[in-house]
Specification:
single chain, alpha+beta, 3-stranded antiparallel sheet, 2 helices, 44% strand
Length: 55
């Protein structure tokens, strides 16, 4: 997921499915890749759908 964020142009968004236990890692990746979480939806099977935007 880090490489997907790295390849985005500023302002672009991407949706990713993560396990709930991966959230803290995603926060770190977003900080390093200068991105932000703009939406978060819980989906079945203990997953979360995040929408991320590159700053």
């Amino acid at each position: 997921m880090s490489s997907r964020l790295q390849n985005l142009e500023p302002g672009m968004t991407v949706k990713v499915e993560i396990r709930k236990d991966q959230r803290s890692n995603i926060d770190i990746i977003c900080r390093v890749r200068k991105s932000e979480i703009i939406a978060e939806d819980n989906i079945p099977e203990n997953l979360t759908m995040l929408t991320l935007r590159k700053r």
